[in-house]
Amino acid sequence: MSSVNEVRRVSVTKVRPASYISHDQRIDLNPWDLKPLGGEYIQSGFLFTKLQPLLKQEDDNVFNNMIAHLKTSLSYNLDHFFPLAGRLGTQKHEDDETISVYINCNSEGAELIHATAEVSVDDILSPAYVPQRIIDLLFPLNGVLNYEGHSQPLLSIQVTELLNGIFIGCSANHSVCDGTSFWQFLNAWSEMCRSSGVHTPIRPPVCERWFMNDTDCPLRLPSSFADKLLAVKNSRSDPIILPLHNCVEKCFRFTKESITKLKATANSEIVSEKREFMLISSLQAVLAHLWIAVTRTGRSLNVNYSENEETLFGLMMSNRTKLIPPLPEMYFGNSITFGMVTEKDDEVLTRGFGFLASLLNEVVNSHCDEKIKSSIKSWIQKPLIITSGGVANKNLVTRNSQRFNMYGNDFGWGRPIAIKTGRNGKSSGTTNISPGPVEGSIDIEIILPIEVFQAMESDVEFMEAFSI
């Protein structure tokens, strides 16, 4: 690699919906959308190997033509996902000194950046730990808060020509969409890009927001809400400086065979505890295996270990199918609830990963319409701002899902060879879930101090899962 700092922006284009005049409307945000205002933009990206024609230096127009085609297809896709082409807006209510936050679908435009970088595919994939310093350069809007969507684009995409590859880094405002909607947008864009002349997604989005029947719309928030968000923004210095607090990120790849074995072991342990009606899922087994390893390692490294110490495991759970009636399959917006398991470390280490998997299973299975709506009512009565960071070293919080269609995003030059996430929203304990490149596999990216990883790699019980 020549120099990690040699990323050059060739052009920055404002991409508007192809028929943007018809999308001048307001979308009021519901509690699911308002919660992330103090957090950072969603960031995910695709790594591709470069097509052979692009390696010929005399054919300079090939990459420029690809960029032009990406812009055109993005413009047509924004006709359907038009909230991403707008900006956030705030209405002040003078009668009771409250505010309402909404999406102003003014078609001001998303942002598409064409860049070049003196970085190779191996520079990204070869290191034992994720080279965050390199990844940072491939994503736009690092450290930008969702609340800044009043002035920042709600969607920014950077297409970077590497020495022997292409990286498409996408950053989207988390108050406009969650992970499910984000990947619906990307799936539709890649579909449109590789199908020249097709301007309508196979499954168009539903952009109308869901509100409980007895909810006043727009939602009115205390004016201090905006002040707190501005304080969060102003309290952050340069987000690029030590944002991971001396931690590193590593990806553990679980094969289909290892997942099958972990799942079978977890379910056999549950049966032995006479919970015969419980069925542990593949993901619950994998996460429990990871959780117990982090807990074991935490005890071995912590000289001041307390017998009553607890570990927290957080899950982001979709509300879409849990509501009665369920949301439309292509609902475009936020619809997630934070589930949490807390258990004493002694219990975790004594009872094993099957027990941990059962705790995760119970949280997921208890997620229901009644609890979702009760949570919404509580938040409306006392709105809280979610900010990034703050997870303790051995506490884990999961993001994303292995069910998202990530590797199916072919823009016309083949499937991606890797999926990478940006630094936004990450801190020690952040655990990112994605499908692996081989069908049935799962990739788990986790951020921890490097000494924890070194201890985990010496943990025979944990590493057995990767020897299958």
> What amount of the residues lies in strands?
15-25%
SS-based class = alpha+beta
Q: What is the level-2 CATH architecture name of the largest domain?
A: 2-Layer Sandwich
- DSSP strand count: 16
First CA to last CA: what distance? 34 Å
CATH topology type of the largest domain: Chloramphenicol Acetyltransferase
Number of domain units: 2
What is the 3D shape?
globular
Numbering strands along the chain, what is their spatial order in the largest sheet?
A: 1-6-7-8-3-14
The number of helical elements comes to: 12
Low-confidence stretches: none
Order of helices and strands: EEHEHEEEHHEEHEHEHHEEHHEEEEHH
Question: How would you summarize the topology of this molecule?
Answer:
Blueprint (H helix, E strand, L loop, with lengths): L6 E9 L9 E4 L2 H4 L7 E8 L11 H18 L8 E7 L4 E8 L4 E8 L3 H5 L6 H6 L17 E7 L3 E8 L6 H16 L26 E2 L1 H12 L11 E8 L1 H17 L9 H20 L8 E9 L17 E9 H21 L3 H13 L14 E4 L18 E4 L8 E6 L6 E8 H7 L3 H4 L5
Parallel strand pairs: 6-7, 11-13, 13-15
Antiparallel strand pairs: 1-6, 2-5, 3-8, 3-14, 4-5, 5-9, 7-8, 10-16, 11-12, 15-16
Q: Can you tell me about this structure?
A:
The structure is a single chain. The protein is of the alpha+beta class and 468 residues long. It has two domains: 229 residues, Chloramphenicol Acetyltransferase, CATH 3.30.559.10; 220 residues, 2-Layer Sandwich (Chloramphenicol Acetyltransferase), CATH 3.30.559.10. The protein contains twelve helices and 16 strands. The strands form three sheets. The protein has a six-stranded mixed beta sheet, covered by helices on one side. Strand 4 and strand 5 form a beta hairpin. Helix 7 crosses helix 9 and helix 8 packs antiparallel against helix 9. The two termini are 34 Å apart. The model has no long low-confidence stretch (mean pLDDT 89).
